[in-house]
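Example record

Each entry pairs one chain with its bound ligand, zinc ion.
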Amino acid sequence: MTDTLIKAISKSGTIRAFAAITTNTVNSAYEIQKPATLSGIILGNTLTAALLCGATLKGSGERISLTYKGNGVIGKAMAEATANGKVRGYAANPQSEFCEDVDVKTQINEAIGKNSQLTVCKDLGLKQPYSGTINCVTGDIGSDVAYYFTQSEQIPSAVAVSTIPNNDNSGVEISGGYLVQKIAQNEKINANETTELEKISLATSAFSLNSTLLEKKNPEDLLKNIFSDVEYEVLDSVNLSFECACDKENLLNALNLFDDETKKEIKRTDDKIQIICEFCKKIYYILPQEVR
Ligand SMILES: [Zn+2]
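Structure tokens for the complex follow.
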């Protein structure tokens, strides 16, 4: 079954919500990267969060990336998503396992590390990509992405993501999440709409994403839980998949960004250089003379 993300808006036009089930997409990443349990959860959560952020983009060629950097056992995780539901990502240390004596939620929140930073980069097809960085407050990927939207883009947001690995950690049982945003300006909101906001805020804090994912397993049910008794309409549905758009030309362009000394070093080697794409593990061979 194909993963989908569903976009919806409250009838008043004040609040939009995206809900996604990302199980197959995350499983594709597991097949390629074979992460240990803790790394897999962080990878799954980062991929889901990037897909939800990707849904906020307008043009089909636009992309958004989330990069977490910190001093925890995983240290860095990143994912890049397109507006039309393609995503790729990785966790820098794929072999991080849970430590038996520490609470699981604490380990997930500390996997990237305390004092971590989240950088969101948007490629909107303009000359320069837009980029913003925040200091993470919780280590919980959903809350940090919500904090980014609220702080950097002044869009009050709530985000929750979850990845539940299967018993032998060969993949995930289910993964998914949601993003809710207030899209109208304060001065344009009337009393009824304020009540809508309160209702949705209460509804999202009342239901457990994990239990809902395990019970219902579809984005429509997530939306019903989010909007509760607030009227809404579904706008669009996007198919999701793990896809890496790497190619040799892009790799050579990336190598071109290295400093001159490093490039000279590469050119001096006699043999071809092996480079492995960290997203899809595809192997590329570069000849020294191909470095520009
Ligand atoms: Zn690749």
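The chain has a mean pLDDT of 90.
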